[in-house]
Write a structure and sequence with these properties.
four-stranded parallel beta sheet; single chain; 308 residues; alpha/beta; 12 strands; binds 1,3-dihydroxyacetonephosphate; binds iron/sulfur cluster
């Protein structure tokens, strides 16, 4: 797509957003041109908070299905559009509500903390939600005497376990992209850039996180790079993050730990799809009321946890 057609589509989107009293939220992994037209780009936590606070009647969610569902859980009266309905999160599909119910029967005392990367049905079976930005704080909010079950990401759970004194067991799920980043690969990139700071997402394997100076959410990385005096950073997460990192820090150099870490679902939404969704006010994501009310309890309990 040429620069002109990008700009034309962006202008059409901005015009329709205004006309429809809508906002467009984009995750930090979205295509650059989609991030650039958004009212807010952010990590999962920031986007959930923004969805819960907006006065807009329509939210165009440029991200994946669980994010649009979270917005629907928080804002039942708004129209939540997910421009490409097949944009999902393979990790969220690694646990079903029925599987979680079965696990809860095995662990009746456990407090269930589910990553926001889960379906609304799984959230409805959970006590609390968490994101990569607040998992440690959420775990610390649970009574020390109680066992915790974290789903579905084993890597986020092991990271949380390491940084808290809680009794944490976990589901065997993982992000195919983050889990594919290897120690060998990171060591090779570190050797090529010996002065670079390595920032990794907690969805990476524990042995990869061992090599990182810091583990943090996608927006955590943007804030960290902006505050740091360092000039070079190796980035251990999905490559879409390189756009907001470079945009916010034009004088700094960001090296992907692995350029193949590309989440295909996060790349499904282009400007054309976003525009079409706004024109037709579909595809809509709406969580059924019975599930929504239970899931909202877990999301609200997460949002009540103070992070900073
Ligand atoms: P963040 O919450 O850090 O944005 O991550 C979401 C995600 O899907 C990571 O793969
Ligand atoms: Fe899911 Fe991984 Fe894609 Fe994030 S990067 S949406 S966890 S598959």
């Amino acid at each position: 797509m040429g620069d002109n057609s990008v700009r034309t589509l962006q202008e059409k989107i901005r015009g329709l957003l205004y006309k429809r009293n809508a906002i467009l939220l984009a995750h930090n992994y979205q295509l650059p041109e989609v991030q650039d037209v958004a009212d807010l780009c952010g990590d999962s936590l920031e986007l959930s908070i923004k969805a819960s606070e907006t006065d807009a009647e329509v939210i165009v969610f440029c991200g994946v299905h669980f994010m649009a569902e979270t917005a629907s859980i928080l804002c039942p009266d708004k129209k939540i559009l997910l421009p490409v309905s097949s944009a999902g999160c393979p990790m969220a599909d690694m646990i079903t509500a029925e599987q979680l119910r079965e696990k809860k029967r095995e662990m009746p005392d456990a407090v269930v903390i589910s990553y926001v990367n889960t379906t609304a049905e799984v959230k409805a079976e959970s006590d609390l939600c968490c994101t990569s930005a607040n998992a440690i704080h959420v775990a610390n909010s649970v009574d020390k005497a109680l066992p915790i079950l974290m789903t579905p990401d084993k890597n986020l759970a092991r990271y949380t376990k390491k940084h808290t004194d809680r009794k944490i067991s976990y589901w065997d799920g993982y992000c195919v992209y983050h889990n594919s980043l290897t120690v060998e690969r990171v060591k090779k990139v570190k050797k090529a850039y010996p002065n670079a700071v390595f920032l990794a997402h907690p969805e990476c394997r524990p042995e990869v996180l061992e090599l990182a100076e810091e583990a943090m959410s996608t927006s955590g990385m943007i804030a960290y790079a902006a505050d740091s005096d360092q000039r070079e950073f190796i980035i251990g997460t999905e490559t879409g993050i390189l756009h907001p990192l470079s945009k916010a820090n034009p004088d700094k150099h960001f090296i992907p730990a692995d350029p193949n870490m590309i989440c295909t679902d996060m790349k499904k939404t282009g400007l054309k799809e976003a525009l079409l969704a706004l024109e037709n006010l579909e595809p809509e994501v709406k969580v059924p009321e019975e599930i929504r009310v239970k899931a909202k309890n877990a999301v609200d309990r997460m949002l009540a946890v103070r992070v900073r």
